[in-house]
Amino acid sequence: MTSIASITIEASEPEAASRFYEDAFGLGDLLAVRPSDAPTTGFRAYTLSLVLPQPSSVDSYLGTAIDAGATVLKPAAKSLWGYGGVVQAPDGAIWKAATPSKKEKGRPVREIDEVVLLIGASDVAASKQFYVDHGLTVERSFGKKYVEFKAPAGHVKLGLYGRKALSKDAGVPVDGEGSHRLAIVNDSAAFTDPDGFVWEGA
Questions:
Q1: Among 120, 117, 124, residue whose Cα is nearest residue 95
Q2: Quick one: 4-201 is in which CATH superfamily?
Q3: Coil vs helix vs strand at 14
Q4: What is the largest CA-CA distance in the chain?
């Protein structure tokens, strides 16, 4: 089964970006940073999410991200699905911290259940089929609106959402062009998806 071993974020100031991510989230080998000055404007058609055990975990990770220099796009708040908020890193990547739980569970605050890469696809159904053809296994699917793929423990989970819906969820305008400034490192072959996201071999 093809799966995401790690994510590489491309930044104009890689050393500063690396410090930010270590201070904000401490994701270790799941996240790397490398230099890039590839042109990019507006929404990059993806978000990265930390799925967390409880509301205090959300507040903790958003707090360390803001302290490290992130900009708040959506303050943490309760919703029908749980509790979460969205920030933008200094390098431009958008991060969401969220939990499906509205109550504390007594688990450690600084604990991450999952890291999820959510791609804003121009055609969710076509991208779903593309990824199935490249060895990913669907875990959940809601028609042409949302798809989630299986991931082994300790790997990054992939999800697909419509580009417009994802930008709304992130709290930013849908317009954007140029480089995604993101590389997806997998344990299989190198390829590029229908939306231009580059997958690299581990």
A1: 117
A2: 2,3-Dihydroxybiphenyl 1,2-Dioxygenase, domain 1 (3.10.180.10)
A3: helix
A4: 45
- β-strand 71-78 against 176-178: which pairing, if any? unpaired
pTM assigned to the model = 0.96
Determine the Cα–Cα distance for residues 25 and 62; give it in Å rounded to an integer: 9
- Reference 159, options 150, 171, 170; nearest CA is 150
**Kind plus residue range of the DSSP H or E element containing 55:** helix 55-68
Q: pLDDT tens for residues 13-45?
A: 999 999 999 999 999 999 999 999 999 999 999
Express each pLDDT in 97-125 by its tens digit: 999 998 998 888 899 999 999 999 999 99
Q: Which amino acid is at 155?
A: H
Q: At 28, phi and psi to the nearest 5?
A: 60, -130
Q: Which of 20, 96, 86, 92 is nearest to 51 (CA)?
A: 96
